[in-house]
Design brief:
oxidoreductase; 2 domains; alpha/beta; seven-stranded mixed β-sheet; Rossmann fold; globular; Quinone Oxidoreductase, Chain A, domain 1
Length: 331
Amino acid sequence: MATYQRIVLASRPRGEIKPENFRLESLPLPQLAEGELMVRVHYLSLDPYMRGRMSEAKSYAAPQPLDATMIGGTVGEVIESRNTQFSVGEFVAGMFGWSEIGVSDGSLLRKLDVSSVPLSAYLGAVGMPGMTAWYGMNQIMQPKAGETVVVSAASGAVGSAVGQLAKLRGCRAVGIAGGKEKCDYVVNELGFDACVDYKAGNLKADLKAAAPDGIDAIFENVGGEVFDTALGLTNAFARVALCGMIAGYNGEDVPIRNSRALLKNRVNLRGFIVTEHPELWPQGLADMGALVAQGKLKYRESVAQGLAAAPEALIGLLKGRNFGKQLVKLI
């Protein structure tokens, strides 16, 4: 392998992402400096936050630069090392983006134990999505046994973990997802108490039936009508972990139409960015890793094959076509 491939952001999307916003490039393999190591990427992660980073609009993180490797979490194997802390054959997680190869000085890499947890899970249930679920559950929602927790995008990488964590706490877990297949999976495979299909056209009545005692905590990934409906069913002193607003990921603002409930029910609503809390990651990832290794936390993956498949897979993710965690397999 004298060369490797990467995908760069070629242009900023206007509205929905299109394949032509990206460009596939071939580059010569880099030469390592003293203290560096080279990683062959096995899987790269696709996540909704990527749409926001493709925009120049002011946000919590700098925009993705044009003509640079598209951002993204990765897991892979060390294939060359001039760093005494890393050996050839070790597996690591890092942020090498949409690329077959990554080079690092090791400072932002995490060594992975693949003996009890599959490599791909370190981009999902034992990676940023799992950590996001853990943080929202433990730091914001803090539900007590018997309370009702509602999770939007419940079949996705984050939502599926949230509901299972709620069940482990003795809560009633209610998911919201799109389509019968996803809802059946959420209840029958993941063990949620109920799942409402927002595409069925009866969201308010169905959610009220699924949460007859009202809603004590919401983990929000979607925004728009889904969030408005849940907010209208909150109990006094409900907590909302605002993780994502995928209903507005093409740049449009998404108003909150049931905002009166925030005051009436004294709702504690908190938005969060999980990467801003690195001090909690060791504990959170240890907890999630133990649950996966013990078979107490299930997950599902959608896997696209080959680097060139990444743009279409991201477009599909933002349209809800994926089932569980969206990955791209490179090797």
